[in-house]
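Narrative of activities, Objective 1.

The group set out to show that a structural description can be obtained from nothing but a protein's sequence at a throughput compatible with the screening campaign. Below is one input-output pair from the validation batch, recorded exactly as produced.
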Amino acid sequence: MASLAERHHHQPWSMARVIIASSAGTAFEWYDFFIFGSLAPVISRVFFAGLDPTPALIAALALFAVGFAFRPLGALIFGVVGDRLGRKGAFLITVSMMGGATFLIGLLPTHAQAGALAPVLLILLRILQGIALGGEYGGAAIYVAEHAANSKRGAATGWIQSSASFGLLAALLVIVATRTSIGEDAFAEWGWRIPFLVSAVLLVISVWMRAKLAESPHFAKLREEGRVAKAPLREAFANGQCLKQVLIAFFGIMCAQGAVWYFTFFYLQVFLEKSLGLPAATKDLLLIVMTVVSAPLYVYFGWLSDRVGRKPVMVGGMALALILYFPASHWIAAAANPALVAAQQRTPVVVETDPATCSAQFDPVGTAKFSSACDIAKSMLVAKGISHRSTRSADGQTRVLVGPNAVAIPGGDGLDAASLKALKTKVGGDIAKALSAAGYPKTATPTQAGMTLLILILLLFVVAATALYGPQASALVEMFPTRVRYTAMSFPYHVGTGWVGGFLPVTSFALVAMSGNIYSGLWYSVVFTGISVVVSILFLKETAGKPLEEV
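Output recorded for this entry:
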């Protein structure tokens, strides 16, 4: 007997409209969210102008993470809405919330105009964005999956996965076009607002498309039979079997998803620009290439999972990333800035200091001063992407040793904010002169970089991320019954992407700041990816082709 989805599948244009409308709305929401991540260095200067460069970037990345932190809350709120009132209504609300919040970010006053009020307003809008996105993905993926034929569910939901690429690509193209047309100075002053304001047009289109959709056949049938869940949260998390599936979804799939995908498309941006000194425009172009290549791969790996199974494709992507993290990051450094790598090997940098005066320098809210001589030395080096090791000084004083040159670093304890900032600026200049004398490049030179090799290495990470993400929506949908699917699926997804993925850039960058090694941040991704590989192999069951009525 044909399944419910297959009985509704006889109208080919109907399925196409379902995929287009769902994917377009999701792409728009990702556009909104990705603008912020791509503009983190600009946001750090505009809204955290009172902070030094390293704390300002960490604060901007932390603010990026704030949106992710609230995604699980959105998953719970809209999971209940979607399981009780319907899939369509839930994702109409989410797309409207996301669009409104993004547009308002483009109108916010800067730190120079409103002081501390500016970042406070930005935080509130980021929270709204996070809540909205928490309800978006589950609704769109479930809506498409509940329309698709059992044998084609992976390929159909692969379009929802690719919508992330279309959203990121749109964000990057708007940013690059704006930067190119008005110039970097104007972009930094006011042009950064344009990508946020453009979202108003996309919002109108997305709401119009989604408003024309009907309810999903599986939920409509559930409602006709009077079997809609009255308490989705209790059914999803108080039921032992369902809770077990939620935990497997999180530890077996979503820990790796948060680590692999956000490392590939977000942390590598920070690594290329801040650690390796690649110009922002070159970094953006590389990311565009990665994004364009990734778009069809999501659908391909979703299609492949329909034929060989969800589990082998996803575990293959996790394993590839796990193998690549450390060696490929060194290859990326050698290709992107060979002069920096050569200088580090030829003339290693050493910080002589009293270890007792060194702090962890983990400050996600950007409020700490880091005024000791040790902290000043380390933060200045990290801001320049310079790996270094520390040794105990005989006299308790702090120096940065670059070959024969020793830069004495004074402490800033007791100084007011303006004086401390001036001191750090002077120290940064002194360190830059010593580095330049030792042959360290000020920035990466794209003409000297091995761009072909660099692109190939980056595309290996793209393959890993898309192999994991492509079949993921169908795999998650197939783990939970229709009554609580929206709630049970959305929560582990957004804890994984929202907390593991969202906090990856700020935590990884802070690990670099603490250790002095630009590769230390990789351990974050290695640990979470490793957890998922083990849990998937041991506990994740194959569900490809399984009728949703039988879940």
